[in-house]
Design goal:
This protein is of the alpha/beta class. The chain contains 20 helices and 21 strands. The strands form five sheets. It has a six-stranded mixed beta sheet with strand order 8-13-12-11-9-10, sandwiched between helices. The chain has a six-stranded mixed beta sheet with strand order 16-21-20-19-17-18, with helices on both faces. Helix 8 packs antiparallel against helix 10, helix 15 runs parallel beside helix 16 and helix 18 runs parallel beside helix 19.
C-alpha cells in the first residue's frame, strides 16, 4: 500500500442505495477509501466516486452469480481484527488485510420479494448470506468498527467525523445491527415454516370467545413473534376472536395510506374510510359514509389521538379503538368508558407475509396481498383520462376496495369513501348496495364528483349502467374480461372515464 493510498477503509454493500452517494462522498472527504461490491460499486462509480472492488482486495473474483464475494479472510479479517491485540494487528499486516473501520450494509430484499408473490426459487435467492455475516462480524467488533444498517444513520455518522463515533455510539449502532439481522432471520424462518407442514405456534392469550359465544378461542403466535406484543391493551374488556379479526382488517386498511386516515370496520368490511389533512376530519368523513353500520365497530387511526378527537370518539359506541399513540388527555377521556377496548399499536402495523386457512382439504397458504403502490399520474386509461384530482380519488378508492370482501365495490368522493358494496354473489348487486348506502348517508347528494372502484373486472355492462345512473364520472378496475371492449364502450356511451390496473384484489 503506497503512502498516497488511504489507511482506513469503509466497506459499502447495499441493496437499498438511498443516501449512499452523499455518504460515500463524505467518507472520501474524511480520508476513507471505499471498498464495495458489484451493484453498489457500479452505482458509486457512476457518480464519480473512486471505489476499490472487493475482488481486488481478496484476489478472487465474484463467483456463482454473486453468491460468493465477501466471504474471505481479507474481508472478515478487517472486520474482526482487534486493533488493541498485537497478534491480530500482526496478522493483518502479514496478510495485507485492509483496516476496515466502517461497514454499511443492508440486506437483500427478502420480505419484499415474498410480498410480491415471487416463485420459491426467486425468494430463496433473496436470502442474504454475506450481508448478515459482515454485519455480525463488524458489530461483534464494535470496539473498533462502526456498523451501519440504516441509511438514516449515515448523516449522523458523518456529523461525528473526523474523530468518528465514540465507543457508546458504536455500541448503539451494533445493537441496531444485531436487531436488524435477527428480524431478517426471523422472517426467513417464518417463510420456511409457512411452506412446511410443521406447526410451530405458542399460545399467548385465551380470548373471551370465538365468532360466537359457544366457541372457545385462543391467540397463537410463532415463537419468534411471541415476545413481540405488537399492541398493548390500555383499557377495556378482554378481546374476542371477532375483535382481533376486525382489528387486523382495520390495521391493514389504514396501513395502505400515508396521510392522516381513519378506517371504521364492521365484520371485516369498511363501514367508512377517509384520508384528510387532520385525523379528526378523517374520522368525521369516515363516519359519514355509514353511521348506522359504524355503530359498535372497530376504529383504526394512523396518527396520535388527541383530546379533541377523544371527546368526539367518546360520543359513540365502539368495540375497539386502535392508534399508534394517545395523548394523556385522550386516555383520561376514553377511560370514562370502562368497557371500551383501547389498543396502542407499537411500531406500526407489521403485516403478515403469508395468509393461511384450515380447510377440510388441508391447510391452504398464500403470499399476502401487498400494499398497493399505484401512481395516480401513471394510470392505464381505456378511455380519455381525467383531472389529476379525480385520478387521486380513483387510487384512494382502489386501495380501499382491496380491503372489502368480494364482490367489492367502493364509491368515493375525493379521499372519502361514500358508499361500499361488499360480499355479494353478483357484482351488479354490490354496485346497487353501494349506491343505496351512499344515498342513505348523503340524502342531499355527495358534495363532489363520484368515482367507483371494483376489485375485479365487470363481466357485463349492467354494473356500468347502474354506476352511470348514480352519477359516477370515473371507474377503476383490473380489466381482463372477455367483454372489456363492451365495458369500455358502455363507459364511453355514458361519458365515464375508465382506468385498468391489471391486478385483481379478491378478498374471501
Amino acid at each position: 500500500m503506497s503512502a498516497k493510498e488511504p489507511s482506513l477503509f469503509a466497506l459499502l454493500s447495499l441493496s437499498d442505495k438511498a443516501e449512499s452517494v452523499d455518504f460515500a462522498r463524505g467518507l472520501v472527504a474524511a480520508g476513507y477509501g471505499i471498498l464495495s461490491t458489484g451493484g453498489t460499486a457500479d452505482h458509486l462509480k457512476k457518480h464519480g466516486i473512486q471505489v476499490t472492488p472487493v475482488s481486488e482486495i481478496t484476489g478472487f473474483p465474484e463467483i456463482m452469480g454473486g453468491r460468493v464475494k465477501t466471504l474471505h479472510p481479507r474481508i472478515h479479517g478487517g472486520l474482526l481484527g482487534r486493533r488493541d491485540v498485537p497478534s491480530d494487528v500482526a496478522s493483518m499486516v502479514e496478510h495485507g488485510i485492509a483496516d476496515i473501520r466502517v461497514v454499511a450494509v443492508n440486506l437483500y430484499p427478502f420480505s419484499q420479494t415474498v410480498q410480491k408473490g415471487a416463485a420459491s426459487a426467486e425468494i430463496v435467492e433473496q436470502i442474504d448470506i454475506g450481508g448478515p455475516a459482515m454485519i455480525r462480524a463488524s458489530a461483534k467488533n464494535f470496539r473498533h468498527v462502526t456498523t451501519l444498517v440504516d441509511p438514516s444513520d449515515y448523516a449522523l455518522f458523518l456529523a461525528m467525523l473526523p474523530d468518528g463515533p465514540d465507543l457508546e455510539a458504536r455500541r448503539g449502532f451494533a445493537a441496531k445491527a444485531f436487531s436488524h439481522t435477527a428480524d431478517y432471520d426471523a422472517r426467513i424462518a417464518t417463510w420456511f415454516d409457512a411452506g412446511s407442514s410443521r406447526d410451530s405456534f405458542v399460545e399467548v392469550a385465551e380470548l373471551r370467545y370465538g365468532e360466537n359465544p359457544h366457541q372457545s378461542a385462543r391467540l397463537l403466535r410463532r415463537p419468534d413473534e411471541a415476545a413481540q406484543g405488537g399492541w398493548e391493551t390500555l383499557q377495556g374488556k378482554e378481546l374476542s376472536y371477532n375483535n382481533l379479526i376486525d382489528a387486523d382488517a382495520a390495521l391493514a386498511l389504514v396501513a395502505e395510506f400515508d396521510a392522516p386516515t381513519c378506517a371504521i370496520i364492521k365484520h371485516t368490511n369498511p363501514a367508512g374510510v377517509a384520508s384528510a389533512p387532520t385525523l379528526h376530519a378523517a374520522f368525521e368523513h369516515a363516519l359519514a359514509c355509514d353511521r348506522v353500520s359504524a355503530f359498535g365497530g372497530i376504529v383504526a387511526l394512523n396518527r396520535t389521538v388527541d383530546a379533541q378527537l377523544a371527546e368526539t370518539l367518546a360520543g359513540s359506541f365502539w368495540e375497539v379503538i386502535l392508534a399508534p399513540s394517545f395523548s394523556a388527555e385522550a386516555l383520561t377521556t376514553l377511560g370514562a368508558k370502562k368497557n371500551l377496548r383501547v389498543l396502542r399499536r407499537s411500531g406500526g402495523p407489521v403485516l403478515p407475509e403469508w395468509n393461511s386457512r384450515e380447510t377440510c382439504f388441508g391447510r391452504v397458504i398464500q403470499a399476502a396481498d401487498p400494499k398497493i403502490n399505484l401512481d395516480p399520474l401513471q394510470l392505464d386509461w381505456a378511455t380519455p383520462d381525467v383531472a389529476p384530482e379525480l385520478a387521486e380519488s380513483l387510487v384512494f378508492a382502489w386501495r380501499t376496495c382491496k380491503h372489502v370482501k368480494s364482490n367489492a365495490i367502493v364509491l368515493a368522493s375525493g379521499t372519502t369513501a361514500v358508499g361500499v358494496g361488499a360480499g355479494q354473489m353478483s357484482r351488479v348487486d354490490s354496485v346497487r348496495i353501494a349506491f343505496e348506502k351512499m344515498q342513505r348517508a348523503y340524502p342531499d347528494g355527495v358534495p363532489g364528483p363520484i368515482v367507483l372502484a371494483s376489485d375485479a373486472f365487470f363481466p357485463f355492462r349492467d354494473g356500468i349502467d347502474v354506476a352511470a345512473e348514480g352519477g359516477v364520472v370515473a371507474i377503476i378496475q383490473p380489466g381482463g374480461s372477455r367483454r372489456d371492449d363492451e365495458i369500455v364502450a358502455a363507459c364511453k356511451e355514458h361519458g365515464i372515464a375508465m382506468a385498468f390496473t391489471g391486478t385483481r384484489h379478491f378478498r374471501h
